[in-house]
């Protein structure tokens, strides 16, 4: 079917210098979209035809506009429904669907008046001209020039008119114009070479800039997808991400600074991975370390403490962090060390390590999501 239309287009162009595809659609009695499809096929053959894109605007009546062109404008119908002695505004507005719009327009044109005391609407003139109906009838007859552009725009706002953009092509003969339509070859076959038929064949030009088929590539791991989603949620809520690239931590920051007693079972080797090299950490903020030691041993800040002899050697042991809360402890310490307290919202998503027995539901490492907010007068309400 497409080839038949293509041949008809070529036969038409043989006797014409140029033609618009809209005109051609009417002449060939074919849908415009099918004409466009045939033009695209002809363009793929090379320079058989030249096609220049054209855009044109036209006006058409909406359903409401068509109704007005037949029966009259809303303001005209309002005027028409007012008897000689007048009518109550309430009854007038119930007379037809768009009476409220028509009433407003008729009042602005001075066709009617309203007695606010009695609520009665009366005519103020005996002769009126329904310009809206006349204008819409002109547009329906394609006599757009008789209606000023500002009036058309007003009717468009009233949804009586709609502007239609029509795209078409202006066709003319190309430098390789021919009446015979033959699809160019895309491959040079052994048979063509053996028979020598390639010499008379037309080949489609190679597009060396065309992108090839993308090879199959890797995908994000489901865990990374979840991390990315959670991270975006925290960022959208105004949180800042804490640095969590320090997998090795001291027992002080991992346990003691979080006031986990040194005899707690979680600090045993069967629950935690302790390092042999480097085995211990020695750099701690001295003043803060003494405060942590005193709270463990004696209590303070509302706590009675654990009442035991706190050991620095135990706090110095290095380990693979068992939770990212160790990072939160460091960040909160840095916050209070500043010159002036500033409210903050921190979050972290990263790996932590536990000396678990491996099975179908347990690994020695997993991910922890954590958020912390520091401010005055915070509640959980």
Automatic annotation (TrEMBL):
Record's subcellular location: Cytoplasm
Key words, A-Z: Aminoacyl-tRNA synthetase, ATP-binding, Cytoplasm, Ligase, Magnesium, Metal-binding, Nucleotide-binding, Protein biosynthesis
PANTHER family: PHENYLALANINE--TRNA LIGASE ALPHA SUBUNIT (PTHR11538:SF40), PHENYLALANYL-TRNA SYNTHETASE (PTHR11538)
Ranges for domain Aminoacyl-transfer RNA synthetases class-II family profile: 225-381
One GO biological process term: phenylalanyl-tRNA aminoacylation
E.C. number: 6.1.1.20
Similarity comment: Belongs to the class-II aminoacyl-tRNA synthetase family. Phe-tRNA synthetase alpha subunit type 2 subfamily.
InterPro entries associated with the record: aa-tRNA-synth_II (IPR006195), aa-tRNA-synth_II/BPL/LPL (IPR045864), Phenylalanyl-tRNA_Synthase (IPR002319), PheRS_DBD1 (IPR040724), PheRS_DBD2 (IPR040586), PheRS_DBD3 (IPR040725)
Signal peptide stretch: none
Entry protein name: phenylalanine--tRNA ligase
Stored Pfam families: PheRS_DBD1, PheRS_DBD2, PheRS_DBD3, tRNA-synt_2d
Gene Ontology MF terms in the entry: ATP binding; metal ion binding; phenylalanine-tRNA ligase activity; tRNA binding
Uppermost EC category: ligase
Native organism: Clastoptera arizonana
Single GO cellular component term: phenylalanine-tRNA ligase complex
Keyword match 4Fe-4S: no
Primary location group: cytoplasm
């Amino acid at each position: 079917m497409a080839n038949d239309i293509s041949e008809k287009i070529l036969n038409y162009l043989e006797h014409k210098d140029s033609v618009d595809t809209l005109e051609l659609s009417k002449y060939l009695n074919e849908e415009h979209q099918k004409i466009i499809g045939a033009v695209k096929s002809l363009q793929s053959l090379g320079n058989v035809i030249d096609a220049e894109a054209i855009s044109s605007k036209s006006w058409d009546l909406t359903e409401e506009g068509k109704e007005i062109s037949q029966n009259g404008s809303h303001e005209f119908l309002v005027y028409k429904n007012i008897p000689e002695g007048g009518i109550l505004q309430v009854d007038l507005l119930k007379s037809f669907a768009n009476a409220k719009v028509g009433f407003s327009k008729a009042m602005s044109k001075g066709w009617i008046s309203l007695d606010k005391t009695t609520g009665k609407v009366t005519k103020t003139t005996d002769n009126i001209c329904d310009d809206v109906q006349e204008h819409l009838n002109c547009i329906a007859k394609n006599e757009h020039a008789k209606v000023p552009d500002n009036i058309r725009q007003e009717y468009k706002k009233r949804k009586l008119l709609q502007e239609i953009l029509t795209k078409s092509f202006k066709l003319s003969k190309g430098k390789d114009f021919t009446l015979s339509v033959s699809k160019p070859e895309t491959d040079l076959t052994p048979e063509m070479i053996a028979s020598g038929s390639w010499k008379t064949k037309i080949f489609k030009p190679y597009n060396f800039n065309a992108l090839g088929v993308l090879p199959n590539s890797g995908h994000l791991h489901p865990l990374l997808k979840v991390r990315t989603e959670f991270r975006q949620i925290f960022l959208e809520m105004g949180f800042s991400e804490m640095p969590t690239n320090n997998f090795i931590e001291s027992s002080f920051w991992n346990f003691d600074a979080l006031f986990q007693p040194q005899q707690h079972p979680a600090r045993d080797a069967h629950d935690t991975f302790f390092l042999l090299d480097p085995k211990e950490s020695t750099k701690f903020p001295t003043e803060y370390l003494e405060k942590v030691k005193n709270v463990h041993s004696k209590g303070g800040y509302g706590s009675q403490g654990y009442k035991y002899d706190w050991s620095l050697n135990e706090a110095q042991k290095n380990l693979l962090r068992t939770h990212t809360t160790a990072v939160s402890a460091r960040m909160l310490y840095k916050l209070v060390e500043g010159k002036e307290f500033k409210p903050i919202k921190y979050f972290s998503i990263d790996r932590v390590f536990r000396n678990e027995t491996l099975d179908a539901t347990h690994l020695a490492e997993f991910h922890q999501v954590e958020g912390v907010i520091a401010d005055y007068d915070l509640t959980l309400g």
